[in-house]
From TrEMBL:
PANTHER family: BETA-LACTAMASE-RELATED
Protein name per Swiss-Prot or TrEMBL: Serine hydrolase
Entry keywords, A to Z: Hydrolase
Domain of life: Bacteria
UniProt keyword annotation of Hydrolase present: yes
Protein's UniProt keywords contain Cell membrane: no
InterPro entries attached to this UniProt entry: Beta-lactam-related, Beta-lactam/transpept-like, Diverse_Enzym_Activities
GO MF term list: hydrolase activity
Database matches in Gene3D superfamilies: DD-peptidase/beta-lactamase superfamily
Species this protein is from: Paenibacillus baekrokdamisoli
Length: 383
């Protein structure tokens, strides 16, 4: 006999219809997520939706953990957001640009001496933000059966780095994939480098800068790079590795900054970040970015750049400064987003003034059923 899947509701401010959304689409969304849980494709699902600054849906179902005996996933359970962290990093870089400390097309070698080689000297901050630096892509980007061992630079997921080891040198070992600006290769390594740039320029550790300049001012009170012990039981996990990651009590200064995949957060916190972007960089009187800064982050910056990853082959790939751009499905053209390891996502539609944040924890990683299909259901609900 199949166990009942309980739908938990979070706080909302208006009904869907009050902000021009068809509540029948929410029923379809819940039914879809429920079927994925019953089929063991995902462990659980939660989401929050707002339009015109008002939350009209906030719900969760499924399990909090991968264990047989597990509490339920709740609307504001904490979850590692993986690559959603990258848009925090991009926003921090934009802050430093706006404050006059760095400039967008500045050579990385002017800040990090390891890049001062014939092979890497032309790489700029822009190239790192747009994944066009030529640095090698993440394992699995080419569906390769044996991911390259060079990714061991990401020691922060497992153990402390030997203080004599230069992780930047490890990233730069071997050939580049293409000349800067020519091809799009999704590189978490490049974002670790951006985190190091933030650390050097701000003269404070990357994670502390993001906490002080973005998370705390926005009231993102349940977003962390180290989860406090008191909150660990509220964290959604899908594996023993993720569970072990919660035991970290301090970040090793010798390891790469967690600028590409290290932030934990909740749906409500991600929603606040999305609302700040919709507000042109401001939320509740707190100015995080300028209006032009947000526009620069979320507009296309690539022309005739080839992308051949994750089974795709595009000659004119579009990408912002850290933000993905939607132009191929029901999402309104101009919608910008970032996802995290197939487990979560934040979508912002400036035309419809809608924010959609979701968690779909799974041991399978990315599945189209849990990421692409829900987007179509959500955007079809606009009246």
């Amino acid at each position: 006999m199949m166990e009942t899947i309980t739908l938990h509701h979070g706080r909302t401010e208006v009904t869907p219809e009050e902000v021009g959304f068809d509540s029948a689409s929410l029923e379809r969304l819940n039914d879809h997520y429920r079927s994925l849980i019953e089929s063991k494709i995902i462990q659980g699902a939660s989401y929050v939706l707002s339009r015109h600054g008002k939350v009209f849906a906030h719900a969760a179902m499924g399990q909090l953990t991968h264990k047989e005996e597990s509490l339920d996933l709740l609307p504001d359970s904490i979850r590692k957001t993986y690559s959603i962290t990258k848009i925090m990093t991009a926003s921090a870089i934009m802050q430093l640009i706006e404050r006059g400390f760095i400039y967008l097309h500045q050579p990385v070698s002017s800040i990090l001496k390891q890049f001062d080689t014939p092979m890497h000297r032309d790489i700029t901050i822009f190239h790192l933000l747009t994944h066009t630096s030529g640095l090698r892509a993440d394992p699995g980007y080419y569906f390769e059966p044996n991911p390259l061992p060079w990714f061991e630079w990401a020691y922060h997921e497992r153990k402390k780095m030997d203080p004599t080891t230069d992780w930047i040198q490890i990233i730069l070992a071997g050939p580049v994939m293409a000349a800067p600006g020519r091809e799009w290769h999704y590189s978490t390594a490049g974002y670790a480098v951006l985190g190091e740039i933030i650390t050097r320029i701000a003269e404070t550790p990357y994670h502390q800068y993001v906490q002080d300049e973005i998370l705390l001012p926005l009231g993102m009170e349940h977003s962390f790079f180290i989860v406090p012990p008191a909150w660990r039981e509220d964290v959604c996990i899908t594996s023993s590795r993720e569970e072990n990651g919660l035991l970290v009590t301090e970040l090793d200064a010798n390891s790469p900054p967690r600028a590409g995949n290290g932030m934990y957060s909740t749906l409500s916190d991600l929603l606040r970040f999305g609302q700040m972007l919709l507000g042109g960089g401001t939320l509740d009187g707190e100015v995080i970015l300028s209006r032009r800064g947000v526009e620069l982050l979320t507009q296309n910056h690539l022309t005739n750049v080839r992308m051949q990853g994750w089974g795709n082959d595009e000659d004119n790939f579009r990408f912002g400064l850290g933000f993905s751009l939607e132009d191929f499905d029901l999402c309104t053209p101009g919608t910008f987003n970032h996802e995290g390891f197939g487990h979560c996502g934040l979508y912002v539609d400036p035309v419809e003034q809608m924010v959609f944040a979701f968690l779909v924890p799974s041991t399978r990683g990315y599945t189209t059923e849990s990421v692409l299909v829900p987007k179509a259901i959500v955007w079809s609900g606009l009246l």
